C-alpha cells in the first residue's frame, strides 16, 4: 500500500500535522488486553455491582423492571441490524426502514395520535423537544410545566428551553397532582403549551381532560408525558385531547442498564408533523410499483436545514426502538394489556399489604392516598435513604427516594411493582419493610 | 422560459404587476429546475407585512430548502392555497398556477429596481 | 414484497405469555376513575413468537451492515464492532442495574465511568468530561451550553455568534441555533482549510466561539489550527472540537494541545460501539479545567478512600441534558474497546485508518477528480464532476455501487465540493475489501464512459429499485392504517 501511495512509511502520511502539535510518547492508558484478560477484568468490575438478579426490584421513577421476552434479545442481536447505519441508501436497508415504519405505527397505536418519529434520546429530551414543537407551531415563547412531572424531566426541559429563550413556568401541584386552579392562574394567550405527566412522577393519575381543555381554551397545545405500559389499560392521549405525546420507552423491552441507552418516543397530531424533530420513515414505491420505505420529510432535519432545523438530532436510539417493536409484536394486543393489568394488580396488592403496616411502629403511610397505576409514594419515621439501605441489606431495592431526585421531604420514597414481581416477592418485601422500620 | 412582461430578482423570483398596486410573485423556471421536485411550500399569512429582500416563504424539495425573498415591500393580500395540496404546481407551471403570493406594494417604484427578462437571462447565464 | 407486522398473524395469537395473576385481583374501576380507562385494547398486531422471529430475521436479511460488507461512509467511521464488547455490555452486573440504586451498590459501574472519563480526557488532552450526551449532536449542544455559561459567568453574555466553516456537518449550525446562537459561516480556502484571513475579519467582541473538526470533513488536517486557536482566543472566544474525525489522530495529536477548549467524541464512531441502524450512540464532552465547573449533573467523583459516587450538587452546572447518567451500555463497550487496544493499539488504529484512506485515494485518483491535491487523513473526498459531464451524477454512481454489493460512500457532502463523494474505509477493512471497493468504483467509472445508461438507471440488483422520494414527501404515509380506515377515508 505504501508503494502505491508513494511513501516510505506511514509516518509520512501525517506530514500535514505540524511538529509542535504531534503528541510525543505514549498516551497514559493501561496497556492493551487480550480478550480473555479483558473479559476477566470486566467481570470483576461487573461483580462489584449488586444487580437485580440479586436484589428484588421495587424501584421505579422512570426506569422499570418489566419482563423482557427472550426473543427480543434474538432480534436485536442480528448483526445485520445492530452493525448497520442510518438507512441513507434505502434500496439495501429496507430491513431497518421497514422496522422503523412499524415502530412509528406501533407508537401511534399506543398513543392514539397520527404520526410518530423514529425515536429520541430518552423520555426527558423527548418531552423537551415536544415543548419546543409547541412553541414552533404556535409562535409563542412561554410554556407551562406541571410540578408533578419527573424532576429530571423538568430540569432537562428548563435547560433546553432556557437556551432557546423560551420561558418555563412551573404549575405547582396540590396533594400529589397538578393544581388546576394554579394552572388557570398561569395560563394566558402567550402560552405555547402545557406539559403534564400521566401517570405522574408520584404514580398518580392527573386530571388530563380538564388540563387539555384549559390549555386549548388559552390557545396552547397539550403535551403529555406517558408511561407506555400504562397505555395497556389507560386511555390513550389522543382520546383526551393531547396534541403531542412523548415519553420513555425503556419499559418496552429494554434492559435497565444503569440508566441508558433508553428510548424517547414522540408522537403528535398530523398537522404538527413538519415541526417534528428527528428521523421519520415514509412509505412509497419504486419504478416497478414495489412498496418500499424511505427517510422522508428530511427538509426538517439538520443535514438539510442546518441552522434552521427543527432540532439538531441526528443519531437516535434506533436499536432500542427495534427492541420495543419486537416487544410489542411478541406481547401483541392481549399480552400488552396483560402487562399493564398485571402491573396494576401487583402494585395494588403491594399497597394493600403495606397498608396493614400503618398504625404499627415505624409510622409507615402513603404520602397521598390517590389513584395510582404501578407506583406510589410511602413515608415513615425512617429517613428514606436509610430505609433504602436497610431494605438492600435484606435483598430488596426500593426508590428513588425524594432526596435522590432533589425533592423533599427526606422521608419519602417511591415504591413500584410490575408484572415481573411474584406474590412471594411482594410478601417478602413487605416483611422486609416491616423489619426495616423497627430495626 | 422567462416571460418578457415580468420583472425578476437575482434570487430567482418573478413579479407580475397587477391592478391596484398589486405584485403577484413566484419563482422562475430556472429556480424550479434547480430545486427539483417541490414537496412543500411554507406560505406567508394573508395580512402579513413583508420587506423587500427578506424571506417571506419557504420552498422545500426532497433534498433542499430555499427561502423565497419578497421582491417588494408591502402587505400580503392573497396566498396560493392550492400549493398546500399541489406543491408540484411550482414545477409544472411556475409562472401560472404555481404563483405563491400577491403583495400589495407600499411603494410601486420598487419595481424599477428589479431585473428585466433580458437582465435576468444574463444573470443566469442564458444570454 | 415484505409484509408488515400488521399484515400478519391472526386474532388470539400471542408471542408471549405471563404467569397467571397470583395476587387477589381487584376491578380496575374500583381503583381508577372509569373515564381514565381504555375502552378498547390498543390495536396491536397478534402474532406467534415464530412469526415474529421470522419477520425480523427476514427483515435483517434485507439489510446491509458492517458485518455484511465494507461500509465506506465518510465521517461515519463504520469500523468493525468487536463482539467481546457486546458480551461485556451484556454482563448481568451491568445490564441489570437500576439507575436509582444507591452509589455503594454500583461501585463497578461508577468505576468504569470514572476511568472512561479519564481515558477520554487523556486522548483529548483535556481535564474533565461529561459522559451524559447520548450522541455527537447532543454533545455539541452541551458544548455550546458550556460556552454560554463561560461567557455569562464573565459578564460577557452578549457574545452571540459562533463561527463555523462552510464544510461543517449540519449538526454544527443546528446545535448552535438550538443554543440561541447566530451562525457566521467561514469559507474554506483553496487548500480546503478555514480561510484564516476571513476568520480574523469575522472574530470580535460578539464571538462566543468557533466550531471545527480537525481533520475536517474533507479529510484534511488544517495546519493553521494553532493560529486559528490564537485568533479566536485573543478575541475572547472558545474553541469547540467536533470529534467526528478523531479516528485519524488517536495518540498522534490531541485536540487539547491544538488549542481546543471543548471536545466531543462519538463513541459509536471512533470507539467502535455499534451504530444500531441509527443509534444508540454516545457523545461524551471533554473540557479544559476552567470549564469543568459548568459540566452538567451528575459527574462521577472519587473519595480519598477510593469509593466512587455520583455528584448531583453542582451549583454552576449548565443544568441537565437528559435523564439519568448517560448511555451506560454504550459506555461499557467503549471502555472495553479502549482497554483492549491500549495506547499502542489506538495509535495503530489511526495509522491504519490514514493508510487505508490514502491508498484508496491513490487508486481512484486517475478516474475521479480530486478537488484537493494533498495527503488525506482517514477519509477523502472525490468529485463526480468528470462523470457529470457525461450526464452521470454522483447519486447514480452511488446507486450503481449497490449493484456491486457494496454500500455507497457519503454523497453530496460536504456541500462545498460539487458532486461530492466522501470515502472513509476505516482501519478494520482487510486489503481485499479495499481492493473490491476500488475495483468496483473503477469499473463504474469505465461504465460511465462506455454505457452510462446502466449507471443512470441503477440499481438493478437490489430488492427494490430507486424509491419515489418525491411522492414520500408530497404525500407522506408515515404509518400503516387498517383497510377499513382507508376505505372510509376515500369515500
Q: Can you walk through the features of this model?
A:
The complex is a heterotrimer of chains A (439), B (127) and C (491). Chain A folds into two domains: 56-67 and 332-437, Aspartate Aminotransferase, domain 1, CATH 3.90.1150.10; 70-327, Type I PLP-dependent aspartate aminotransferase-like (Major domain) (Aspartate Aminotransferase, domain 2, 3-Layer(aba) Sandwich). Chain A has 439 residues and is an alpha/beta fold. Chain A is globular, with a radius of gyration of 25 Å. Chain A has a seven-stranded mixed beta sheet, sandwiched between helices. Chain A has a three-stranded antiparallel beta sheet with strand order 13-14-16. A two-stranded parallel ribbon of chain A has the order 1-15. Helices cover 36% and strands 16% of the residues of chain A. Chain B has 127 residues and is an alpha+beta fold. Chain B has a single domain (10-107), classed as RNA polymerase II/Efflux pump adaptor protein, barrel-sandwich hybrid domain (OB fold (Dihydrolipoamide Acetyltransferase, E2P)), CATH 2.40.50.100. Chain B has helices spanning 29-35, 82-85, 89-92, 117-123; strands spanning 7-8, 13-18, 22-27, 38-42, 49-50, 55-61, 65-69, 74-79, 101-105. By secondary structure, chain C is α/β, with parallel strands linked by helices. In chain C, helix 10 (255-258) links the parallel strand 5 and strand 6 (262-265). In chain C, helix 3 (83-90) packs antiparallel against helix 11. Chain C is globular, with a radius of gyration of 26 Å. Chain C starts with 27 loop residues before the first helix and ends with a helix. Chains in contact: A-B, A-C, B-C. Chains A and C meet through helix 1, helix 2, helix 3, helix 4 and helix 5 of A and helix 2, helix 3, helix 4, helix 5 and helix 6 of C.
Amino acid at each position: 500500500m505504501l508503494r502505491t501511495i508513494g511513501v516510505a512509511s506511514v509516518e509520512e502520511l501525517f506530514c500535514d500535522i505540524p511538529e509542535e502539535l504531534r503528541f510525543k510518547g505514549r498516551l497514559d492508558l493501561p496497556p492493551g488486553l487480550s480478550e480473555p484478560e479483558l473479559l476477566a477484568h470486566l467481570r470483576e468490575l461487573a461483580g462489584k455491582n449488586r444487580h437485580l438478579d440479586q436484589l428484588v426490584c421495587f424501584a421505579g421513577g422512570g426506569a422499570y423492571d418489566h419482563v423482557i421476552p427472550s426473543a427480543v434479545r434474538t432480534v436485536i442481536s442480528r448483526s445485520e441490524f445492530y452493525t448497520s447505519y442510518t438507512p441513507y441508501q434505502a434500496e439495501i436497508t429496507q430491513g431497518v426502514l421497514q422496522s422503523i415504519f412499524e415502530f412509528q405505527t406501533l407508537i401511534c397505536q399506543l398513543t392514539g395520535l397520527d404520526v410518530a418519529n423514529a425515536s429520541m434520546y430518552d423520555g426527558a429530551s423527548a418531552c423537551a423537544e415536544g415543548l419546543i414543537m409547541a412553541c414552533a407551531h404556535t409562535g409563542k415563547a412561554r410554556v407551562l410545566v406541571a410540578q408533578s412531572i419527573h424532576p429530571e424531566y423538568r430540569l432537562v426541559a428548563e435547560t433546553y428551553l432556557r437556551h432557546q429563550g423560551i420561558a418555563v413556568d412551573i404549575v405547582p401541584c396540590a396533594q400529589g397532582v397538578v393544581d388546576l386552579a394554579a394552572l388557570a392562574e398561569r395560563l394566558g394567550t402567550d402560552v405555547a403549551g402545557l406539559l403534564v405527566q400521566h401517570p405522574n412522577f408520584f404514580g398518580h393519575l392527573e386530571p388530563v381532560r380538564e388540563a387539555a381543555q384549559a390549555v386549548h381554551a388559552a390557545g396552547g397545545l397539550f403535551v403529555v408525558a406517558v408511561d407506555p405500559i400504562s397505555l395497556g389499560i389507560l386511555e390513550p392521549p389522543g382520546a383526551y385531547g393531547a396534541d403531542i405525546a412523548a415519553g420513555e420507552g425503556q419499559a418496552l423491552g429494554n434492559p435497565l442498564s444503569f440508566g441508558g441507552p433508553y428510548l424517547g418516543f414522540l408522537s403528535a397530531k398530523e398537522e404538527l408533523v413538519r415541526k417534528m424533530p428527528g428521523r421519520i420513515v415514509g412509505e412509497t414505491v419504486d419504478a416497478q410499483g414495489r412498496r418500499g420505505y424511505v427517510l422522508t420529510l428530511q427538509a426538517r432535519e439538520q443535514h438539510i436545514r442546518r441552522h434552521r432545523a427543527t432540532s439538531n438530532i441526528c443519531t437516535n436510539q434506533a436499536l432500542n426502538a427495534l427492541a420495543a417493536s419486537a416487544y410489542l409484536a411478541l406481547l401483541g394486543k392481549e399480552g400488552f394489556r396483560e402487562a399493564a393489568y398485571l402491573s396494576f394488580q401487583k402494585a395494588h396488592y403491594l399497597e394493600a399489604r403495606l397498608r396493614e403496616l400503618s398504625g404499627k411502629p415505624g409510622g409507615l403511610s402513603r404520602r397521598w392516598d390517590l389513584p395510582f397505576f404501578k407506583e406510589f409514594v410511602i413515608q415513615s419515621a425512617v429517613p428514606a435513604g436509610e430505609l433504602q439501605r436497610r431494605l438492600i441489606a435484606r435483598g430488596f431495592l426500593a426508590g428513588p427516594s425524594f432526596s435522590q431526585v432533589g425533592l423533599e421531604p427526606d422521608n419519602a420514597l417511591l415504591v413500584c411493582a410490575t408484572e415481573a414481581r411474584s406474590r412471594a416477592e411482594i410478601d417478602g418485601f413487605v416483611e422486609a419493610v416491616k423489619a426495616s422500620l423497627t430495626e | 422560459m422567462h416571460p418578457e412582461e415580468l420583472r425578476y430578482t437575482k434570487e430567482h423570483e418573478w413579479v407580475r404587476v397587477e391592478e391596484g398596486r398589486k405584485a403577484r410573485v413566484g419563482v422562475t423556471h430556472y429556480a424550479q429546475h434547480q430545486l427539483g421536485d417541490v414537496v412543500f411550500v411554507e406560505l406567508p399569512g394573508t395580512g402579513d407585512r413583508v420587506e423587500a429582500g427578506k424571506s417571506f416563504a419557504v420552498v422545500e424539495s426532497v433534498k433542499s430548502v430555499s427561502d423565497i425573498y419578497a421582491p417588494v415591500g408591502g402587505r400580503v393580500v392573497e396566498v396560493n392555497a392550492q400549493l398546500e395540496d399541489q406543491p408540484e404546481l411550482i414545477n409544472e407551471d411556475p409562472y401560472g398556477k404555481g404563483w405563491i403570493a400577491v403583495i400589495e406594494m407600499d411603494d410601486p417604484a420598487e419595481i424599477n429596481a428589479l431585473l428585466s427578462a433580458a437582465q435576468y437571462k444574463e444573470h443566469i447565464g442564458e444570454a | 414484497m415484505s409484509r408488515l407486522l400488521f399484515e400478519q398473524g391472526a386474532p388470539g395469537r400471542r408471542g408471549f405469555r405471563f404467569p397467571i395473576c397470583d395476587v387477589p385481583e381487584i376491578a380496575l374501576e374500583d381503583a381508577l376513575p372509569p373515564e381514565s380507562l381504555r375502552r378498547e385494547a390498543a390495536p396491536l398486531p397478534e402474532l406467534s413468537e415464530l412469526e415474529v422471529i421470522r419477520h425480523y430475521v427476514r427483515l435483517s436479511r434485507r439489510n446491509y451492515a458492517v458485518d455484511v460488507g465494507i461500509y465506506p461512509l465518510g465521517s461515519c467511521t463504520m469500523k468493525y464492532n468487536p463482539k467481546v464488547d457486546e458480551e461485556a455490555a451484556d454482563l448481568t452486573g451491568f445490564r441489570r442495574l437500576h439507575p436509582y440504586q444507591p452509589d455503594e451498590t454500583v461501585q463497578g459501574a461508577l468505576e468504569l465511568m470514572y476511568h472512561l472519563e479519564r481515558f477520554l480526557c487523556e486522548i483529548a488532552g483535556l481535564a474533565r468530561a461529561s459522559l451524559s450526551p447520548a450522541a455527537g449532536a447532543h454533545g455539541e449542544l452541551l458544548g455550546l451550553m458550556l460556552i454560554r455559561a463561560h461567557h455569562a459567568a464573565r459578564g460577557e453574555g452578549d457574545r452571540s455568534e459562533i463561527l463555523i466553516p462552510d464544510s461543517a456537518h449540519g449538526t454544527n449550525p443546528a446545535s448552535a441555533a438550538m443554543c440561541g446562537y447566530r451562525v457566521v459561516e467561514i469559507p474554506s480556502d483553496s487548500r480546503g482549510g478555514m480561510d484564516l484571513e476571513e476568520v480574523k475579519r469575522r472574530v470580535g467582541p460578539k464571538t462566543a466561539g468557533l466550531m471545527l473538526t480537525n481533520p475536517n470533513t474533507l479529510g484534511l488536517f488544517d495546519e493553521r489550527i494553532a493560529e486559528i486557536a490564537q485568533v479566536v482566543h485573543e478575541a475572547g472566544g472558545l474553541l469547540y472540537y467536533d470529534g467526528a474525525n478523531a479516528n485519524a489522530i488517536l495518540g498522534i495529536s490531541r485536540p487539547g494541545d491544538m488549542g481546543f477548549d471543548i471536545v466531543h467524541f462519538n463513541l459509536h464512531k471512533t470507539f467502535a460501539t455499534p451504530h444500531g441502524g441509527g443509534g444508540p450512540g454516545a457523545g461524551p464532552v471533554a473540557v479544559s479545567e476552567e470549564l469543568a465547573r459548568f459540566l452538567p449533573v451528575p459527574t462521577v467523583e472519587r473519595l480519598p478512600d477510593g469509593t466512587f459516587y455520583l455528584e448531583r450538587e453542582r451549583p454552576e452546572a449548565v443544568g441537565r441534558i437528559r435523564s439519568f447518567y448517560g448511555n451506560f451500555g454504550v459506555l461499557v463497550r467503549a471502555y472495553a474497546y479502549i482497554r483492549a487496544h491500549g495506547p499502542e493499539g489506538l495509535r495503530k488504529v489511526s495509522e491504519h485508518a490514514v493508510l487505508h484512506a490514502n491508498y484508496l485515494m491513490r487508486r481512484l485518483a486517475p478516474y475521479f477528480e480530486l478537488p484537493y491535491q494533498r495527503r488525506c487523513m482517514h477519509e477523502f473526498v472525490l468529485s463526480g464532476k468528470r462523470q457529470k459531464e457525461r450526464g452521470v451524477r454522483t447519486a447514480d454512481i452511488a446507486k450503481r455501487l449497490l449493484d456491486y454489493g457494496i454500500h455507497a460512500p457519503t454523497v453530496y457532502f460536504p456541500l462545498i465540493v460539487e458532486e461530492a463523494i466522501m470515502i472513509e474505509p476505516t482501519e478494520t477493512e482487510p486489503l481485499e475489501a479495499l481492493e473490491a471497493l476500488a475495483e468496483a468504483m473503477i469499473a463504474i467509472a469505465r461504465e460511465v464512459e462506455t454505457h452510462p445508461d446502466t449507471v443512470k438507471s441503477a440499481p438493478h440488483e437490489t430488492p427494490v429499485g430507486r424509491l419515489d422520494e418525491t411522492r414520500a414527501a408530497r404525500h407522506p404515509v408515515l404509518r400503516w392504517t387498517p383497510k377499513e380506515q382507508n376505505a372510509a377515508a376515500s369515500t
